[in-house]
Amino acid sequence: MTLKSPPAYALSSVTMMNRASPLIAALPLILLAACARQEPVGNLPDDNAIAAAVNAAAAPIAQTPPADRIYVDPKHGFSVTMPEGWIRDASADNADGVVYKDPGAGADVRVFWQANANDQDLQQIVEAVNDGSDSVEGDFLGDNEYRGSATDGEGNAVVVRLLKQADGSIVTATFVYPEMLGEQYRPIAQQVLDSLKLGAPVKAESAAADGNSAAR
Q1: By C-alpha distance, which of 6, 81, 86 is closest to 40?
Q2: 157-167: per-residue pLDDT in tens?
């Protein structure tokens, strides 16, 4: 299954905005932003990039990671642990989320918060995103969690996790990586998405929040 190209998504977004909330209309753009990066995988990664991915896979996220690898958003009430050695892309950040990249390997993680003023349930949101398309495959885990995967048609795999908070807002994490490096990146993607938590870790909150503020 592949994600639709931007023109096709534009048509889908118009239909959704005519009958759905701004959140639903915005979610396809979140997925597109994860895919339509400035480094499409048209060229094969070099040996150093492949070696970096292999090394990263061989060193999974520790059970107690350093605070500088934990991104905490106390304003929106979520936290996520990034892989070791990944670099924050401050130019892609905004007040609602953060982007981290694997230097030279063409992979990135994006975690963003989105309001849900109409308090739509998660199934309604996901169904609206996929209206008229089989582009994303996934499963609902209870009422407040969704996990899906797709490809962008440009050699990238996309893995996504959506969590609905108690106030109805949505936190979306997307992990994008070159399909040809799937064996190395799949376990890393799972670890990162698994680490997404609602509510900041008590022990890491202060140090990580200070780091987040300094990086902005």
Answers
A1: 6
A2: 999 999 999 88
Nearest-CA neighbor of 37 among 210, 189, 154?
154
Structure tokens at 5: 């190209």
Please give the Cα distance from 136 to 35 (Å, whole number). 13
**Residue 121 C-beta-side C-alpha neighbours within 13 Å:** 6
- Beta bridge partner(s), residue 151: 2, 157
Residue pLDDT, tens place only, 106-153 = 899 999 999 988 888 888 888 776 654 456 789 999 989 999 998 888
Give dist(CA 158, CA 64) in Å, integer. 26
| Closest C-alpha to 35, from 6, 13, 77, 8 | 6
Which pLDDT does position 38 carry in this prediction? 46
Q: Which of 202, 189, 206, 196 is nearest to 97 (CA)?
A: 196
pLDDT for the residue 210: 52
Q: Where are the domains of the chain?
A: 6-215
- Angle of helix 182-195 relative to helix 47-58, nearest 10 degrees? 50
Answer yes or no: are the C-beta atoms of 159 and 149 closer than 8 Å. yes
- What's the CATH fold of domain 6-215? Protein Transport Mog1p; Chain A (3.40.1000)
Structure tokens at 162: 């959506």
Length of the chain equals: 216
